[in-house]
Amino acid sequence: MSSTGAGWAQLRQQARSLESQTETLFHTYSQYASTANIPQKPTDDEQRVETQLQDILEKRETLISQLSRLLDSEAALTSSALKQNNLSRHREILLDHRRELARLRSSITDARNRANLLSNVRSDISAYRSSNPEDAEADYMLDERRRVDNSHNMADSVLSQAYAVNESFGLQRETLTSINRRIVGAASQVPGINSLIGRIGAKKRRDGIILGSVIGLCFLMLLYFR
């Protein structure tokens, strides 16, 4: 292999290695944009990762320039065509990575600005309440009133559901009573029907127990939320 070919292979290997390192650093750097409590200023680690990304991109730019000079010095047309495609690919990846770095940097900046804005608003509210204790007390009373109203609304909802369940069971009770009357009327005419009537009576008692339990639970919830 000629010295030019060996130099080309070595530089390409370095370029691919730096491309892989860039992808790894992008994964680490992107996590700063999704941090739940992003600090107001960049941390040392964040600055270190960003600096490493910038340095690697500059090294890759230098490697691409060296590959381009080697390509210009070659005379074999077939070899140069293949290498030209490889060089173009390295340039495209470098451009994509520069765009990705700019996008991530912008996302981190936006996330930090939102967090700082929220923190400043909270600080202003706290300062206002500290300097205006009467207004702060009024806000507290309004918050308490809203919580009490919410509790009342929940209790009313539970009570409405209890009334609806009670009405439903009432309709079922009337239906069962009507069926029971028909069955009792037919019992005197059909032999062996008494056992069937006994089972129906047991089901009716069970429904009564369920009805009482549901109504009692609803009223306990009503007393609790009030």
Question: What would your notes on this structure say?
Answer:
The chain is mainly alpha-helical and about 230 residues long. It contains 5 helices and no strands. It has helices at about 5-30, 45-75, 75-130, 135-185, 195-225. Helix 1 runs antiparallel to helix 2, helix 1 packs parallel to helix 3 and helix 2 packs antiparallel against helix 3.
Question: Per the principal axes of the C-alpha atoms, what is the gross shape?
Answer: elongated
What is the rounded distance between the termini? 90 Å
Please trace the helix and strand order, writing H or E for each element.
Answer: HHHHH
Query: Helix tally?
Result: 5
Radius of gyration: 40 Å
Helix content: over 70%
Question: Which residues sit in consecutive blocks of at least 5 with pLDDT less than 50?
Answer: none
% residues in beta strands: under 5%
Largest sheet: none
Number of strands: 0
Tags for this model:
226 residues; mainly alpha; 5 helices; 88% helix
